[in-house]
């Protein structure tokens, strides 16, 4: 199994109650604060920890009484989420040739068409 080599940003330990601390530079970068939900993803040989997006509809609780422009709140949330997704996509594709995914898909299609031509 080939994995991308990365260097750890920080080290933490697990307490006797199986708790750990998220380093401040990670909390700041990914906007993690008290109450942020985290997904733990089993990657086979490693674990991926992903902060889950907030639930934007919670901002609408009590709507109509506060005078808050909830369309603006939702628009702001979506903009932040889009920026976060774009940033993550750029980080994940760094070093890949442009349109690498399209090239791989084209190669798979060519292999399928060659294989189906033998049976006709």
TrEMBL record:
<keyword id="KW-0238">DNA-binding</keyword>
<dbReference type="InterPro" id="IPR037914">
    <property type="entry name" value="SpoVT-AbrB_sf"/>
</dbReference>
<feature type="region of interest" description="Disordered">
    <location>
        <begin position="80"/>
        <end position="120"/>
    </location>
</feature>
<dbReference type="Pfam" id="PF04014">
    <property type="entry name" value="MazE_antitoxin"/>
</dbReference>
<feature type="domain" description="SpoVT-AbrB">
    <location>
        <begin position="12"/>
        <end position="57"/>
    </location>
</feature>
<protein>
    <submittedName>
        <fullName>AbrB/MazE/SpoVT family DNA-binding domain-containing protein</fullName>
    </submittedName>
</protein>
<dbReference type="InterPro" id="IPR007159">
    <property type="entry name" value="SpoVT-AbrB_dom"/>
</dbReference>
<dbReference type="GO" id="GO:0003677">
    <property type="term" value="F:DNA binding"/>
</dbReference>
């Amino acid at each position: 199994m080939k994995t991308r080599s990365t260097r750890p940003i920080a080290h933490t330990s697990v307490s006797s109650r199986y708790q750990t601390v998220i380093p401040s530079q990670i909390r700041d970068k990914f906007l993690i604060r008290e109450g942020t939900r985290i997904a733990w993803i089993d990657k086979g040989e490693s674990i991926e920890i992903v902060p889950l997006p907030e639930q934007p509809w919670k901002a609408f609780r009590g709507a109509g009484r506060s005078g808050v422009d909830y369309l603006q709140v939702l628009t702001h949330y979506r903009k932040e989420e889009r920026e976060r997704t774009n940033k993550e996509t750029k980080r994940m594709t760094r070093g890949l040739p442009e349109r690498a995914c399209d090239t791989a898909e084209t190669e798979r299609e060519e292999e399928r068409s060659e294989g189906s031509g033998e049976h006709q």
